[in-house]
């Protein structure tokens, strides 16, 4: 009789050495898979941190995108946002924008223009005097409340004269104008779809360093290509002078330049300037506004520092002299000022103007500013009682956004980030 133990051993399935090896492999695989399972739980911390970071970022954006409503008492309150545009209370300035994302500072001698096609706000100009060399284009988008720069400022060592004797900066492939005072001489030209600069770098110290006879052209910046081109003057003659002002005439499709040299018009062909008259009633620092309803120009501010408004009614033809008229407005009294930011509202048919208030009684420090509506039909000023602003000073940055019916004003000093203020005007709320 066979041994039971031997029979039980013979009845077990035979496992070869190869099968035992595969079994060890499967065991090892299962062990490794368990380790990976335990390790896969650890990276869950990273998605949690990422989610937390996104939440914090959204919270910061929400806080930044809030606007603050200003009043004369200095109190602030949040203003609601709708469709990425601020829901503005009527006849009050509201602070908008993302000031801490900007690396440049507002220059007092800079100018501003509004492009109604792109719905963008542009700033160009510099205080120069060896302290600032910003010849860049700065763009503000009211829809997203963001600033952007078209290109960085050119280095001083690139300042030179081209073969025509025109001051240029940057490399040969992208010659640009020098940093300069623009003041009220930055105009959006809908015909050219461009910004037109009717100024020259008269206060740039590079004029004394770069040798040669200098011929200052009219500079045109094509917004589509973001390229500059120089419009040659009449045998090098500059039709504009320091501290003048310019505006676009939509009725005759010309650009008017007004300075102590008189009146000049850039013809509809945009190839040459026409001298209209040497008559002038202002030295410098004035603002020129075109009234598209009454088809005339209005001048605010100037060296006389009063509240008078000069009106120029242009001739019927391009290059033909028109008629000047001085007005002393009635209504609310305003403090005379040299620098008066002003812009025309074609929907209400009025001009918004900002005057600095008289200095404090102690004569020290800077005061505040008041906002007025000038009615050209009635020749009256109306002060907006709840539209006070911090001291404005030299400022040429007030524009009107015709698409959204909003005024924009840029403020900020040399050591401050630029701040954009917005105002929606409603005449029906006047007392």
Task: Give an overview of the whole structure.
There is one protein chain. With 431 residues, the protein is α+β, with helices and mostly antiparallel strands. It has one domain (70-429): 6 Propeller (Neuraminidase), CATH 2.120.10.80. The chain has four helices and 32 strands. The strands form eight sheets. Strands 2-1-5-32-31-30 form a six-stranded antiparallel sheet, with no helix packed on it. Strands 24, 25, 26, 27, 28 and 29 form a six-stranded mixed sheet that branches. A hairpin with a 5-residue loop joins β1 and β2 (76-79). It is globular. The N and C termini lie far apart (127 Å). The model is unreliable at 1-43 and 58-82 (pLDDT under 50).
Entry summary:
With 431 residues, the protein is α+β, with helices and mostly antiparallel strands. The chain is 13% helix and 32% strand. The chain is globular, with a radius of gyration of 33 Å.
State the helix count.
4
> Major sheet: size, sense and barrel closure?
6 strands, antiparallel
Please, how many domains? 1
Instruction: Could you tell me the CATH topology label.
Output: Neuraminidase
Percentage of β-strand residues? 25-35%
**Which strand order does the major sheet show?**
2-1-5-32-31-30
What would CATH call the homologous superfamily?
Kelch-type beta propeller
Question: Class in CATH?
Answer: Mainly Beta
What is the CATH architecture annotation?
6 Propeller
Radius of gyration: 33 Å
**Backbone shape:** globular
Q: Portion of residues in helices?
A: 10-25%
Task: Specify the structural class.
Answer: alpha+beta
Distance between the termini: 127 Å
The number of distinct β-strands equals 32
Mean pLDDT, to the nearest integer, reads 81
Catalogue the unreliable spans: 1-43, 58-82
